[in-house]
Amino acid sequence: MGRLWQSLILSRWQPLLAYLPVETVIKRRQQVYYDELAVADAQSDCSRFIEFILTAIEESLHEAIRIGQNPETLGKTQGKTPERILDLLRGTSGLAIPQLAASLGKSESAIERAIRKLRQASRLVRIGPDKGGHWQVLDGSDSKQAD
Fold this sequence. Notes:
The chain has helices at residues 2-13, 22-28, 30-43, 47-66, 74-77, 81-91, 97-104, 108-120, and strands at 124-127, 134-137. The protein is mainly alpha-helical. It folds into 2 domains: 1-77, no CATH class; 79-147, Arc Repressor Mutant, subunit A.
């Protein structure tokens, strides 16, 4: 939830930041992320955690530039809504449709259509109820089925 708020705050400050692949960078360094979070909690000092997040943002910016995404066209070249939904849900599987819509700057009905397509393509399943459940992104090797 904290990363969702981070994305929303950063994107309101600078809209292009909403399209950076920060979640992908954090996922690659997930254990370090959790370690820094634990240190921040234990020491009641979030300085190192903030440095980690800033480094992840910097790394994602370099990554976006390296793959040829000009900052001026970053939002336009990031990909289609279904892929962006999968990227968000890989980082935070408990996001609800309104949260996904707000994070991606799309309507809830557009998110619902994209989710319907992802479910039909067996790329996304819902585990548990709408309230209290979560999404599972399927990469082809997953065999769980939706409720």
